[in-house]
Amino acid sequence: MKKAIFAGLALVALIQPAAAQEPATTYIHAGRLLADPASGRVETNKTIVVTAGKIAEIRDGFAGEGNVVDLRDQFVMPGFIDSHVHLTFESSPTSRLDAVTKSTVDQAFDGVVFAKRTVRAGFTTVVDLGSDPQAINALRDATATGKVVGPRIIAAGGVAAHGGHGDIHGYRQEIIDLFRAPTLCSGADDCARAVRLAVQQGADVIKTASTGGVMSNTAAGLGQQMSDAELVAIVDTAHRLGRKVAAHAHGTDGVNAALRAGVDSVEHGTYLDAESIRLFKAKGSYLVPTLLAGDTVARQAETADWMPAAVRAKARTVGPLMVDALRRAHQGGVRIAFGTDSAVSKHGENAREFALMVKAGLTPLETIKSATVWAATHAGLETEIGTLAAGKSADIVAVKGDPLTDVRSLETMGFVMARGVVVRAAGE
Asked: Tens of pLDDT along 228-281?
């Protein structure tokens, strides 16, 4: 107990200086401004006035004196939203060992580092869909109060099936028993209990897994693993408690079962079909494509000793299919929210997803919409983030190039402000 207390105090001591005092008013001179990606309209020579973490107004021309940020040579946009990350860990050849040797405090320390990388890459809001609840909830609260430099965090609580994706595989039984989450469930009533527990533990959203997963160390395939009744219980209970539900799903049967149950988003959607597209549109659900994860695991599968054999076989198969799944969904009119599954890939490289989405047939502007206005609506935060307008959060990013013609320019941030605080200065 004493060690845990001292470790917690050490963490507080480390992060406390991060809370910066911003000037009362900041004037951002934007050479080119895409304030509302939904409109696609790029304006020139504008001043964004920021006060107390909010946008006070947007003026014509370059106005204001005192604390002026010169972005006259940059392309300015709303901060980006990544709808699928895991901030407290990162994939490596030692990941399976790290899972049982790193404490909650260790994971929180890692999260401090990864949160800073993420926000400096232009992602001012993220949805964390699977981290240790204590670690991610503490990190969420610390970024919200300015103790830690990081994005706005929407933290999920995980509800998964015993023996399915989200459970622990491939360790000795004693280790499995020690680390198995109390929000695993079997049967509809038990899954409703698990949702209630996740909410009690502080979850902003519920993450479930209707199918097998690539990274689970088991050769159980990628088909449906939760029953229809279990999925309905999860969705109904979560919605009654005011929480949205994100469903990890690869196989067609599990994608469609999750959509029939009424999930708010499907993560991955690798084997979606025409019926899936019909259900997406009928239910108003979003697809979060995570192409970067597919690209990353396909590459890792060819690296010796990176992943167990059961994982490698799935990674080689699934990775190349995800781009085509997004292409078909986009052509079918499915709503898309940007998401990377970062932790599978490196934190801070989230913007690589944009180019992969273009490869799937989206225009550069559509990819920006997916990471701003579309993702904001998906998160239920469209009145706070996703566009730059008076009264909204001062989440502002800028790049040197023109992302509407060169989407890869989004991979190099020239400026980032998150909730009114500069986290990457112009020229840095």
From this structure: 999 999 999 999 999 999 999 999 999 999 999 999 999 999 999 999 999 999
Q: For 361-369, what is the mean pLDDT? A: 99
Domain boundaries, the chain: 18-79+387-424, 80-379
Single-letter amino acid code for the residue at 324: D
Question: How close are the terminal C-alpha atoms of the chain, in Å?
Answer: 42
Count Cβ neighbours within 10 Å for each residue of 384-417 and write b for 16 or more, e otherwise.
bbbbbeeebbbbbbbbebebbeebebbbebbbbb
Instruction: For residue 335, give the nearest of 392, 362, 374, 293 by alpha carbon.
Output: 374
Residue range 80-379, CATH number: 3.20.20.140
The CATH architecture one would assign to domain 18-79+387-424 is Roll (2.30)
Dist. CA 386–CA 276, nearest whole Å: 27
Residue 328: helix, strand or coil by DSSP? helix
Q: Nearest Cα to 217, choosing from 271, 176, 269?
A: 176
Q: What is the pLDDT of residue 218?
A: 64
> Residue 98 has what pLDDT?
84
**Inter-axis angle of helices 274-283 and 252-261, to 10 degrees?**
20
